[in-house]
């Protein structure tokens, strides 16, 4: 009976995952073992692809244009990075994701789109990412992750850098602009000059 119950619970868990339902608390740090046997941090945010309409809405809200360098933190299958250079003319775009499967998928998608020479996908923790050369940063994370990321964004990004988040705000940092795109809320912030008090720390 215990074995049957175990199988039933496993089946329910798999079905929930396939339906996009979380069976764990996503903002809890989980330790897993990598190929080398060392502990690595598992993703805190479930992979939920950004709808194409929201991708275009985010990049339009950020005003992505030729000359921009776009960073997508938690880049998933690479669709925002690819669209930034392919449809909006960014000179370069970088995606950061902790999941090696997503990095592999993103690289394949970039090859198929013919933009491999303008994009880069880095496997790693977004909190450790070098983002100082970004002129635009895009996010589709969770409220708790946005809040923890805010000090890094304010400390490392140049004044004038545009930040766009899909669906989630950054607490007491009021957005410069908010728009609705296909029933989804998109938020824009602009990094203020140092010491102007334009954003909370």
From TrEMBL:
Short name of any one Pfam family annotated for the protein: Methyltransf_31
Keywords: Methyltransferase, S-adenosyl-L-methionine, Signal, Transferase
InterPro entries to which the protein is assigned, alphabetical: FAM173A/B, Methyltranfer_dom, SAM-dependent_MTases_sf
MF terms in GO: protein-lysine N-methyltransferase activity
Signal peptide positions (record): 1-18
Gene Ontology BP annotations: methylation
Domain Methyltransferase: 65-133
Transmembrane annotation, as ranges: none
Protein name: RNA methyltransferase
Native organism: Corallococcus macrosporus DSM 14697
């Amino acid at each position: 009976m215990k074995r049957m119950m175990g199988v039933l619970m496993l089946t329910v868990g798999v079905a929930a995952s396939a339906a996009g339902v979380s069976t764990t608390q996503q903002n809890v740090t989980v330790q897993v073992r990598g190929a080398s046997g060392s502990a690595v941090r598992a993703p805190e945010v479930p992979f939920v692809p950004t709808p194409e309409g929201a991708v275009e809405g985010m990049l339009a809200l950020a005003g992505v244009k030729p000359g921009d360098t776009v960073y997508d933190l938690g880049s998933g299958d690479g669709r925002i990075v690819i669209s930034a250079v392919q449809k909006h003319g960014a000179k370069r775009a970088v995606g950061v994701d902790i999941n090696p499967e997503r990095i592999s998928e993103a690289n394949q998608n970039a090859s198929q789109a013919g933009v491999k020479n303008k994009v880069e996908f880095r496997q790693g923790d977004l909190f450790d990412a070098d983002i100082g050369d970004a002129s635009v940063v895009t996010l589709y994370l969770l409220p708790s992750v946005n809040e923890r990321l805010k000090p890094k964004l304010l400390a490392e990004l140049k004044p004038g850098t545009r930040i766009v988040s899909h669906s989630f705000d950054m607490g007491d940092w009021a957005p410069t602009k908010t728009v609705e795109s296909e029933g989804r809320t998109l938020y824009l912030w602009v990094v203020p000059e140092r010491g102007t008090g334009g954003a909370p720390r």
